[in-house]
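Sequence design from tokenized structure. All designs in this work follow the same two-part layout: the structure record, then the generated sequence. An example of the structure record is given first.
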């Protein structure tokens, strides 16, 4: 995945290093520090499956005239080219490095690719993904569904608080569920696109894992809120 030119102090870097057997790949994602937008360049000659009309999402607001290629797919093209021939359960070693953290370990190809694809998707130019950019700013790879739900709800409610402070009103919690329903539609169509560019299932199942998470987050969000409620009621010191 090619990167844009360095902009000291203006961008956030997230590095993924993945090794499967004798094959190793490194990806450096450059995120705009203010907007969270992915700044990496896209392929000059992208594969056919990235064209917007190929498996275009039913809820896609973009037009082929203005966007010949799906902007999300363009950013995923190199990763799919690198890993589309790998089995889901192939063992990989990984490192994920940010300015604040260094994660490393062993997992399956589908799990680490799901984390990488999820970050790329959240910072892409797909309009349905914009609301996930605050989470990408504080990226946590391989988080559990409960951790993800906590982070999603926290980011969403903070966003609603900030929006409400400016406008005098805020969406209710159902707005989060509607946004995740839109993501589920994107994931289903994206899985079909990725299948066109893959000979094995690691990359495809990476998207499937993201879709499972998209289904689970609204449920875990409410469950997490209920389970954490007592932690936020400790406003009286014990005797």
């Amino acid at each position: 995945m090619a990167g844009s030119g360095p902009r000291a102090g203006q961008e956030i870097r997230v590095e993924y290093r993945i090794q499967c057997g004798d094959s190793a790949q490194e990806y450096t994602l450059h995120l705009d520090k203010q907007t969270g937008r992915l700044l990496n360049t896209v392929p000059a000659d992208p594969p056919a499956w990235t064209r917007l009309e190929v498996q275009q999402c039913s809820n896609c607001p973009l037009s082929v005239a203005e966007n010949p290629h799906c902007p999300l797919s363009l950013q995923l093209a190199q990763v799919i080219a690198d890993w589309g021939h790998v089995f889901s359960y192939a063992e990989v070693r990984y490192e994920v490095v940010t300015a604040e953290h260094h994660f490393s370990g062993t997992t399956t190809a589908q799990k680490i690719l799901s984390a990488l694809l999820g970050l790329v998707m959240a910072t892409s130019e797909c309009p349905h993904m914009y609301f996930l950019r605050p989470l990408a700013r504080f990226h946590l790879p391989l988080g559990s569904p409960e951790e993800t739900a906590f982070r999603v709800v926290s980011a969403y409610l903070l966003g609603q608080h900030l929006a409400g402070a400016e406008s005098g009103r805020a969406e209710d919690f159902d707005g989060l569920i509607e946004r995740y329903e839109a993501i589920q539609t994107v994931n289903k169509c994206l899985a079909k696109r990725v299948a066109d560019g893959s000979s094995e299932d690691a990359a495809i199942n990476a998207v499937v894992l993201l879709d499972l998470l998209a289904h689970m987050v609204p449920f875990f969000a409410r469950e997490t809120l209920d389970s954490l409620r007592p932690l936020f009621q400790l406003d009286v010191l014990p005797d």
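The chain is about 45% helix and 15% strand. We note this feature because it recurs in several other targets discussed in the main text.
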